[in-house]
């Protein structure tokens, strides 16, 4: 790409004549003033290097209850699966440490009588029974969390109609 600008007049010595004003050029050509070559942008002098931040103020005026229901359903399913896995791992760790057998013996001695044994904690807190109870609680949690989030979306839409919604300020760094 060649320069289409006319060559600038050379500055005159400070003898007697006044020099004309020469504005700074954003693009310089080649290596010197008179050489033709590709235009190269000269760095800005005196400009701060502080990055600009663009900001936008937005308002959440309405939420879609259907999308809120779908997202809350998926998140509560994930939470339910994490709960079941965490309980299973916790039960296995406690069983490996011998917590159930030690506590079970203590409860059996405390509730036992002369003719029979006491309460058998190990059979009551078996892994399948604990996982079944945890799964039931997780399913109830999925249903309740989905219903409450959807109801919350409806209530937000009603209140946003009165007060205008939640205002957010989003910022973007360059």
What does this protein structure show overall?
With 174 residues, this protein is an alpha+beta fold. The chain is built from four helices and four strands. A two-stranded antiparallel ribbon has the order 1-2. The longest helix has 37 residues, at 127-163. It is elongated and about 125 Å long. The mean pLDDT is 81.
Q: Which blocks of ≥5 consecutive residues have pLDDT under 50? A: none
Q: Indicate the radius of gyration in whole angstroms.
A: 38 Å
**Termini, distance in Å?**
30 Å
Query: What is the number of helices?
Result: 4
Physical arrangement of strands within the biggest beta sheet: 1-2
The level of helicity is 40-55%
Give the overall pLDDT as a whole number: 81
Largest sheet: 2 strands, antiparallel
N to C succession of SSEs: EEEHHHHE
Number of strands: 4
* Overall 3D form: elongated
- What structural class should be given to the helix and strand makeup? alpha+beta
The proportion of strand residues reads: 5-15%
């Amino acid at each position: 790409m060649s320069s289409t600008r006319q060559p600038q007049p050379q500055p005159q010595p400070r003898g007697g004549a006044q020099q004309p004003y020469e504005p700074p050029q954003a693009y310089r050509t080649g290596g010197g003033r008179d050489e033709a070559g590709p235009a190269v942008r000269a760095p800005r002098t005196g400009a701060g290097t502080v990055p600009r931040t663009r900001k936008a103020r937005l308002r959440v005026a309405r939420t879609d209850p259907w999308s809120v229901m779908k997202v809350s359903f998926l998140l509560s399913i994930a939470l339910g699966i994490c709960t079941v896995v965490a309980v299973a791992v916790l039960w296995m760790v406690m069983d490996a440490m011998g917590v159930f057998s030690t506590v079970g013996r203590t409860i059996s001695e405390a509730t036992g009588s002369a003719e029979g044994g006491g309460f058998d904690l190990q059979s009551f807190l078996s892994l399948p029974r604990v996982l079944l109870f945890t799964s039931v609680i997780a399913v109830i949690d999925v249903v309740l969390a989905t219903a409450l989030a959807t109801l919350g979306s409806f209530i937000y839409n009603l209140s946003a109609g009165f007060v205008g919604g939640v205002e957010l300020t989003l910022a973007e760094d360059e």
